[in-house]
Amino acid sequence: METYLPLFRQLSEFRMLYASPTDVYFPKAAEVFDSLVTIPLASDIAEDVLRYFHIRKEWEDKH
């Protein structure tokens, strides 16, 4: 999944189909998908970097 993350970022939308002979594995599959694809795609990297530098400046200024 991590290998395809750059491709997923270029797509406006996509669907993932997970098939299993039993539903026992679905919760773990959903968890892995969320951690490897959904959460990284949903994050705004630029916003995260700006937040980091804002917090760093506040820390350095002892606020």
What gross morphology would you assign?
elongated
* Count of runs of 4 or more consecutive helical residues: 3
Low-pLDDT residue spans: none
- Oligomerization state: single chain
Question: What is the tally of beta strands?
Answer: 0
User: What's the end-to-end separation, in Å?
Assistant: 41 Å
| Number of discrete domains | 1
Q: How would you state the average pLDDT, rounded?
A: 80
The chain-level structural class is: mainly alpha
The major β-sheet equals: none
Compute the CA-based radius of gyration: 17 Å
What proportion of the residues is helical, as a percent range?
A: 55-70%
What proportion strand?
A: under 5%
Summarize the helix and strand pattern as letters. Answer: HHH
Structure description:
The protein is an all-alpha fold and 63 residues long. It has one domain. 62% of the residues lie in helices and 0% in strands.
Main traits of this protein?
3 helices, mainly alpha, single chain, 63 residues
Quickly describe the structure.
The protein has three helices and no strands. The protein has 63 residues and is an all-alpha fold. It starts with a helix and ends with a helix.
What's the helix and strand layout?
Blueprint (H helix, E strand, L loop, with lengths): L4 H6 L15 H17 L2 H16 L3
